[in-house]
């Protein structure tokens, strides 16, 4: 895993998490890996966890749903909706709104079970062309930013291993693309 | 106030509120009255309440902030962000996300004070050209839909007088436009 730098768009260090890396796979393929269920499922969750189901309706208010499965076979559904889509460049979604922009019920308060994601966040993936030294092909600057409602949610996300987890997932994405689709 | 019909896009009668009316003012002016602070403030709140401040950043994730003032002079700020903007046709915003799509803190639980809006909703205003009988000028079909997280929030909003309140505000909007900008 290469070194990560904090993204330039990080808004508030007490509330936000993020990283930025250059990867030597084309931007158009990274976009497909994020937006096509069959190409998202293989890499989205650090192994030995897996994604066993995914639904993507790529429009503002459209569903973004994944079901993660633990090595023991327990399943954890996550549902949210897309907020902003700039094809090939920017993808924003949240778990604070359900499909159709419906706010989630406030009853979803944090629990002691750290294996479920019970804090609310909005995540942004930004992609840009990037030169790769020693290569004539362009790679991708990959910037992930996650904004939280409060410091507690941000700290919980960090303690769950946000940066390592999303970094490993990105490594899995790159490995998948390098094998060829 | 003319009769209202439920909008066709009403998603769930237990969770959603809405109405649809035809008003004899042009769609382009209704759009301006919703998206320019100086044109929004005069009508947005049923009198004798008023809007004493408004901020509109008309892009996905941009701020939509108003400060309402009671007849006694008490001020109630409301802050949210825009989700979807189709100029002249559709405006969607929520109070479940702050500017930059940041989820609101869960600490904002409902209180006993019914004068504050503490439930979360996403509101959609849809505008379409509509024929006006006896007039050669087109009017506007105005459809408002508000989706809530749960039945309690929907009922609280209904009990606060959603339909009457938004209807009176629309009357005030139409009256302002008929006087000329």
**Rg over C-alpha atoms of chain A, rounded to the nearest angstrom:** 16 Å
Based on Cα principal axes, name the global outline of chain A. globular
Based on secondary structure, the structural category of chain A is alpha+beta
Q: Taking all residues together, what is the mean pLDDT of chain A?
A: 89
Written overview of the protein:
The structure is a homodimer of 181-residue chains. Chain A has 181 residues and is α+β, with helices and mostly antiparallel strands. The first copy, chain A, contains four helices and nine strands; from the N terminus they run E-H-H-E-E-E-E-E-E-E-E-H-H. Chain A is globular. In chain A, 22% of the residues lie in helices and 35% in strands. Chain A has a seven-stranded antiparallel sheet with strand order 1-9-8-5-4-3-2. The A-B interface holds A 11, 15, 60-61, 83-84, 92, 94, 96-97, 100-107, 109-110, 120-122, 124, 147-150, 153 and B 11, 15, 60-61, 83-84, 92, 94, 96-97, 100-107, 109-110, 120-122, 124, 147-150, 153.
């Amino acid at each position: 895993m290469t070194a990560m730098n904090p993204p330039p768009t990080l808004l508030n260090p007490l509330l936000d998490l993020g990283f930025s890396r250059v990867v030597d796979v084309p931007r158009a393929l990274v976009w497909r890996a994020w937006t096509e269920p069959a190409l998202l499922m293989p890499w989205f969750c650090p192994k030995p966890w897996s994604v066993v189901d995914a639904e993507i309706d790529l429009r503002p208010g459209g569903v973004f749903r994944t079901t993660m499965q633990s090595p023991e076979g327990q399943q954890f559904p996550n549902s949210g909706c897309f907020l902003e889509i700039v094809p090939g460049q920017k993808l924003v979604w949240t778990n604070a709104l359900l499909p159709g922009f419906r706010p989630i019920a406030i009853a979803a308060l944090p629990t002691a079970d750290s294996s479920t994601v019970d804090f609310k966040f909005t995540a942004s993936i930004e992609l840009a062309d990037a030169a790769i030294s020693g290569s004539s092909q362009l790679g991708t600057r990959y910037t992930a930013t996650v904004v939280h409602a409060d410091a507690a949610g941000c700290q919980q996300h960090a303690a769950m291993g946000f940066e390592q987890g999303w970094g490993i997932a990105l490594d899995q994405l790159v490995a998948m693309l390098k094998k060829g689709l």
